[in-house]
Amino acid sequence: MNAGLFLFQERRVKYTYNRMSNSLSPSLRERREAIVREHIAAENAHDISRAIATFHHPRYEVAPFGSVSDGSQAVHDLLAGMFAGFPDFHVDVPRLHHADEAVVVEFVMTGTHGGPFAGLTPTGRPIEVPLVGIFDFERDRLMCEKVYFDMATLMRQLQA
What we know:
Layout: E1 3-8, E2 11-16, H1 26-44, H2 48-53, E3 59-62, E4 67-70, H3 72-85, E5 90-98, E6 102-112, E7 126-138, E8 141-149, H4 151-158
Parallel strand pairs: 3-8
Antiparallel strand pairs: 1-2, 3-4, 5-6, 6-7, 7-8
């Protein structure tokens, strides 16, 4: 099914969606997944240089903050701030999906708010926040990680 109709406020609205494709060659799919898994392993090790090295061009877009960190120094600062705010930062990956130009990862981020983060003083409270990361690729080159999560869930856990 590629298209459908919804009845919305007394008018018909056509929608289409792009299904995640399996048209990738196995070798490209495997290379992309290896890059993503190395990136996640580097973040879990708090190894900023190693995480940056997985990118062809380092770039994060963090939707809940409305922020873009473009370039090595900006990505370094973003990750350093995350690791300072959550010294035991860790992500688990329950699911990983392949699309034509991306790898989509479902994460669960855990940590303890032990340092300043997003303008908040440390609370000492633990967090467990589900996230989605979209790793954009050009062929086998990682170009950007886009991160989506519910800010209200994070703030509720921090009781800010």
